[in-house]
Amino acid sequence: MRSDDLLYRAMMNGIREMVFIVKVETDGEFTYVFINEEAKMRSGLSEYDYGKPIKSLQDSHVTDYLYEQYRYVIMTGEEVVYKDSYQSSSGETYYSKTRLSPLLNEAGKCEYITALVQDITESTWAERSAVESKKRAVESRERFRSLFEHNLDAIMYLNLKGEIESLNKAAESLFIDENIRGKRYFDLISSTDHLKASNSFKSVVNGNAESHRLSIKTREDEKVEGLSLFVPVFVGGELTGIYWILKDITSEMKAMRNFHESEKKFRIIAENAQDLITLVDHRGLIIYTSPSYKKLLGYIETDFEGKPFSFGVEEKYLKELDEAFVRAIKEDKPFKLQVRQLKGNGTPIWTEVQGTPVFDEGDVFSYMVVISRDITLTKQYESKLKHFAYHDSLTGLPNRRMLEEEMKKELAKEDTVFSVLILDIDHFKTINDTMGHDTGDAVIEEFAIRLSGSVRRSDLVVRLGGDEFVILLYDVGDQGVLAQIAEKILLSVRRPWILQGEPFGVTTSIGMTVVNEKNNTAEEILKAADDALYKAKEQGKNTYSVTMLN
């Protein structure tokens, strides 16, 4: 067999990579002059495609990139290696690594380009799979770390000697006065529970999870009742450590012991408590109320007995209260929420209701102990704080924060129509400088009263600060109506003033704008009104001006 034939057969059949030989045409086009069998099979091309422009054989987004690579090879005379993807004739996607090599003639001009295309589909998918696996592993580790660090229960990791190697924030808070890293868990458990703890540790070392109520020494002279869960940790099938999860149940255990020890003691406490104490049975009916019911609600104890737990609570809170009651029993967890209920005379009060389910020795629900505290004053204080957050302390008018929220609400409406006025007191600095800040404050207070009296109660009068005020006129978009309101304000402000027993004159300037489109921002609206105020000042003050939004 001739060497040329042998080379041809090797190129056609013996090479597993795809081989293309591309001719550089004089008109800048590129054509195939040779394609081996592997390339034919994967690309769907054949000898019939020899001599045809490559761009007529494939999609433009493919050939644009190919032509760019070919031209680079011609221009530099160097090899080019790049990675790409392509679709076979069967529609499957393959990934490839291509090496383009120039074939130069005697004059050093590139006449042909060989393309050796290596299939890297398997390695590409392997790389992607490795990246995805790593990503999932990192996410899993982060989720576990979050569960560990932010868990409300104390969690400690013990080595097989029972020494504490790491602990979460809840554990650090529980043992706040002591660094327990490196200590044996056994040393933190009360001596009365040593045998139980020792047996639990032996069992967990054998691969069994254990759960016990143990008394824990958190400080030298202080103990907490804890529900201890010991969980074995396996890595690669081998036990490497133990998680000790500790839930502080001191208050629950103490309450339960006190209740079982003596009902008489409970009644002594209940009869002297200021809060409402209620016992509710498994049917949701009240079986006991403390004497404080009469003092706080105006009812005697027996008025509530036999009635539903929600008796006297306002209707809007009934569903939430019933759901909390059922969930507390189901999960064996206390609940706490705030509701409004009615006193005997019909007066509503706010109460904070905290319920703790009590189970018998067979873990069957017996009753709910409910403590209700009057928080009406707290709610009123919160309401005042909210009022202060949205109102000016000198005039009692709404402030900039409320203005911004109201403007956002208006701009969110389907049919947006309102007007904004910005006003200030003419020559206010002179008033402050000559008559003092107390007089200046008195002028601002009276100015606020006159503005409020000049518009509808439904409109919003706002003090921005200093002597600057804003009025938001709801549903006012007619400039004629706007002018009438401005004249009314000017006239009201010009009425005689008496300050320090002397007549006094005050005027104001007003800038106005009308809003009837939703695409304006609050800042743009206030800027337009402020521009109008500037024009009113230029016109000699004691007048008004209107600037329309763009």
From TrEMBL:
UniProt keyword annotation of Transferase present: yes
Stored InterPro entries: Biofilm_reg_signaling (IPR052155), GGDEF_dom (IPR000160), Nucleotide_cyclase (IPR029787), PAC (IPR001610), PAS (IPR000014), PAS-assoc_C (IPR000700), PAS-like_dom_sf (IPR035965), PAS_4 (IPR013656)
Species for this entry: Jeotgalibacillus terrae
Family matches, as PROSITE patterns: GGDEF (PS50887), PAC (PS50113), PAS (PS50112)
Domain PAS: 262-332
E.C. numbers: 2.7.7.65
Protein name per UniProt: Diguanylate cyclase domain-containing protein
Pfam families in alphabetical order: GGDEF, PAS_4, PAS_9
SMART domains, per database record: GGDEF, PAC, PAS
Keywords in alphabetical order: Nucleotidyltransferase, Transferase
Residue span(s) of domain PAC: 75-132, 335-387
Major enzyme class: transferase
PANTHER family according to UniProt: BIOFILM ARCHITECTURE MAINTENANCE PROTEIN MBAA, DIGUANYLATE CYCLASE DGCP
CDD domains: GGDEF, PAS
Origin: domain of life: Bacteria
Domain GGDEF as annotated: residue spans: 416-549
GO molecular function terms listed in the Swiss-Prot or TrEMBL record: diguanylate cyclase activity
